Structures are given as C-alpha cells and as structure tokens.
Amino acid sequence: MSTGEMFLLLAKRICLVFALFAFPAAGGLVSARTAKVVDTLRAAPDSARIRLTYQQSDHISLVAGYNYTGIRGLAELGLAFNRNVFNGRHPASLALAVSTEFWKDARGVIIAPKVSCWTAGGVAFGVNFLYYTDRYQASLRFRPELGFGLDMFKLAYGYNLAITNRLFEGVGTHCISLVVLLGLKKFNETTTFETLGGKEEKAQSGKKGR
Questions:
Q1: CATH fold of 55-187, please?
Q2: Alpha helices in the chain (DSSP H)
Q3: What are the pLDDT digits (tens) for 1-59?
Q4: What whole-number distance in Å separates Cα of residue 39 and Cα of residue 100?
Q5: I need a labelling partner for 169 at 20 to 30 A (CA). Which of 10, 23, 90, 118 fits?
Q6: Where are the domains of the chain?
C-alpha cells in the first residue's frame, strides 16, 4: 500500500470515528455515507482496520447532590454502586444509592434518608424512596424522576408522592435534582476489542483502586 493510499485510509478512519461519536444516529442506524466508509475499511488489510471497543466497569462512588423542592433546597450525601458501560457508540449507566438529603438553618432541620436507583444514557430515569422528618413529624415519599444523565451525573425533575402524612410541610411536591458521583474505587473492569472483520480480543481486570 502506497503512502498516499495509507493517508487516504487514515483520513477515512478519522471521519468514521467522528461520525460514530459526534453524530450517532437514532435507533443505531448509520447514514449511507458512513456505511460506505465502513465497507471501505472492511476491504482494507487487517493491520489497517480500526477497532471498536466495549467497556464495562463497576464503581463505588460518593454521592453529592442538591435537591430543590420549591420550598427549599436540600443538600445530599451518600454512597452508590454504579456500573458504566460503553458499547463503542453510546454510554449507559446504572446506579444504586443510599444517601441522605438534609437542610438546616436557624428555623430548624429536615433530614431525609433516601434509597434510590436510576439508569442513564442521555435520558435518565430513576425512582427514589425518602423518609422526611423534622424531628416532630415525618412523611414517607416516593419520587419518580426523569431527566438527563451520563455516567457519573444526572439532572432530573421528580414528583414527591406522599405515602404517609400528606400534610408534612417541610418540602414541596415538585423537585429538581442534580447528583454527581465521585468515584472512590473502580473494579471488575472489562474491555473487548472488536475488529471490523469480526475478531475479538477481551481484557479483564479484577479489583482496581481509583
């Protein structure tokens, strides 16, 4: 292969990677132009083919967040187990968290132990159970939420549905929440390399500190 042909092939590879990551098509479809580039790369020698990767890693993370309920904002701290997956085009994540929302000023204090689960891959969807208390009264709430999220963060709108004590006045029914996961430890990391010719190479690591 001449130097000019190698340069042209490299340029096509760069265009393909840019198309796959910067302009992913809905439903996993690719444009006709991208498909032509893929066909060209498939006709190239093995040594010149690009590799698409599948990556998966598990994390223990610190949960840090802020939740505004219309009446007041509550900070959030806790721990989460989260799994991040990247299939060569689209990222996705799943998180299970145990945390506490809290608010305090001269007028009093509100504490809400919380269990939550959410999944994100651009669009984020989650469910939360919270037990709000101001030391004098309490209310168990269920909060479904929908918003935007990727890997280690989400921004979502949720609705606090009262299961007990609907008259609890400490928080509102509408909630805007921002949550960030700060990785403490990464483990069970798996990476699969796949050539366009169908060959696969897999690398897996055990526990790995972060």
A1: Porin (2.40.160)
A2: 3-22, 32-42
A3: 554 455 445 554 544 444 444 444 333 433 454 455 455 555 555 554 555 567 889 99
A4: 52
A5: 118
A6: 1-49, 55-187
